[in-house]
Amino acid sequence: MANSLRLFFEEPKLFLTVYAKSQQLMKQLILCLLALVLLQGPIWGQTKAIAYKSFAGELPFFNPEDLPEDDFGLPPPMMIRLEKLNDSMVVETIRDWDQSLEIDTVKNHLYIHQQKLSMEELRKRYPRNIEFIGFEEDSLPRVSDTLADPQQPALEEIQKPMDRCPAPKKKTDSPKAEPQPRAEQGAIEQAEPQKAISCKLPEEEPIHLAYIGWGGFFLLFVLGLWYRIA
User: Which parts of this chain are annotated as the region Disordered (predicted)?
Assistant: First the structure.
């Protein structure tokens, strides 16, 4: 009898200790998962645009979509110099981040051959420290200032002295409308009665109580889960 009473009172204590240990283990597991996610976030969040702004930082026309897909998280190579061979071929010298130089020959360059940018506009498309070889100031077409920003004459130069005078009033030769007698006016008013236009105010939409109930249920569920974990 005494042993049965002792086991009856000791079993709940054992159950509570096991439950407390499982709760502590669950907390440690959740904290480890959160720490792992926070540590992996900067690694997987290093996109092309972030990498470019962190390392390269000066190329104004950078577009992440133009880069290949296998360099995710890596900055693009740095342009060292541009050497113009002729009107349709350009040699680009590129340096990767491992200090190795690469030379690439580009035919029908987009900015030089197809768009035919001026030297001033071409320098804006590349970093400041890039070296241009074979590009004279007059080798590329330059947009003239008169065509780029034409000067419009002032308003006083366009207007003539006759334009500043007010326009004369137009003469109307049509006879004035004669007033109708009151009897005819009353007949017209009786023939065409005015139609009443009914206007309805927009009705307010009723608040759905189901949404409020689901929101309260979700809030109670989250609070209960937090209380069980804590």
Answer: 156-193
